[in-house]
Amino acid sequence: MYRYISYRIYPSKKQRKLIAKTLQCCDLVWNLALRHVSYCRGNNIPLPTERQMISKIADWIEDYPDLLDPNPYVLTSVISDFYKALSTKKNIRYRKGRSAYRLLSGPDGAVVTFDFIEVPGVGYIRYRQGQRPDGFGKRIVVKRTRDNKYYAMVLMSLPNPNKTNNGGVIGIDLGIKDFLVTSEGHRVAPPSFMGQYQRQLKLLNHELSRRNKRSKNYRKTVYAIQRLYEKIKRQRKDFLVKTALDIVTNNAIVCIESLDIKGINKIHSIARKEVDLAWGEFIDWLQKKAQEYGTKVIRIGKYFPSSQICSNCGRKNPALKDYTIKAWQCPSCGIVLDRDINAAINIRNEGIRLLGIN
Ligand SMILES: [Zn+2]
To answer: 302-316 burial by CB neighbour count: b if 16+ within 10 A, else e?
Structure first.
């Protein structure tokens, strides 16, 4: 099993400069490739293939000798990312200020030593001990966050961890009032990553507006804002991973709705946007962690009317298209149902039906 292990690294001042330069070169290569593509398009010249574009780097080095410095694999990987973007995205933009680059490690692959991580092109970098490496690194991603922390993600071959789940079957309804409700009636409150720091952000932005753009204090405030954003990012990830792990470790089958963000609700607010964003990330984490624990994630079609069916007798009640109804009594069998738990149970039942168990 190959997995990226992330190490916090502490490059020296010289190494930080090298990393910064490499990141700049990545932007430069990306932008030169994009300029060439728009030139070809403008003059009706057929676009070069990825391989041809890679060989163009040698021409660019004549005009930009800085490109000689980074590990050549870094630059070719930028071109390969560029071609991936070219085939999938409509508009590619010129880039500035990227935060990460990847590279191949040496032929023997051993880059993590007892005291240092060897990053080709940068040298030996001190790293935070704690996660002892158990394998060999094949690829490295070097990352610099906006608050100037450095990480090396090393792709390692790890022995299978033999993780198992507790074998339950669960349905999950994603929502706004509660982040999620399970078919067992467990509710997870919505995270307020942004909300918690809204006031602090507002104050800092106000402070920024009063600063002189060329002053040292302006840069200090920018840094403080970026540090706060990174903190929010870390907290969001922590919440999402923990929530996903809690579900995955306890269940063998997890049934979840496919997201239909447009159809769910029409409330527009910051809180709403946050939750939207978190849902997508949450499902990504859920699937990633499910793989580790051998849990099956089943996505239910987005047109499945999970909240309109009575989970007790199966009768459909179209009146429930109204989102404000939180609890209702089934006109057919008389049971009183909580809207979200009922939906989660229906999602669970639909997942079981799709699997063909029963
Ligand atoms: Zn009923």
So the answer is: eebebbbbbbeeeee
Domain contains 251: yes
Q: What is the pLDDT of residues 124-148, one digit of tens each?
A: 888 887 666 555 677 889 999 988 8
Within-domain flag for 261:
yes
Taking only the tens place, the pLDDT of each residue in 269-323 is 555 566 666 788 899 999 999 988 889 999 988 788 888 899 988 888 888 777 7
pLDDT tens digits, 19-49: 999 999 999 999 999 999 999 999 999 989 9
Give the chain's end-to-end CA distance (angstroms, integer): 33
- Three-state SS for 152? strand
**CA 314 – ligand 1 centroid, Å:** 6
Q: Which domain holds residue 304?
A: 163-189+237-358
Measured distance CA(79)–CA(57) in Å, rounded: 9
Residue 333 alpha carbon to ligand 1 centre in Å: 4
- In terms of domains, do 139 and 179 share one? no
Q: Compute, in angstroms, the gap from residue 340 CA to the centroid of ligand 1.
A: 15
Same domain, 7 and 131: yes
For residues 347 and 180, give the distance between their C-alpha atoms in angstroms, rounded to a whole number. 13
83 in a domain, yes or no? yes
Domain count, the chain: 2
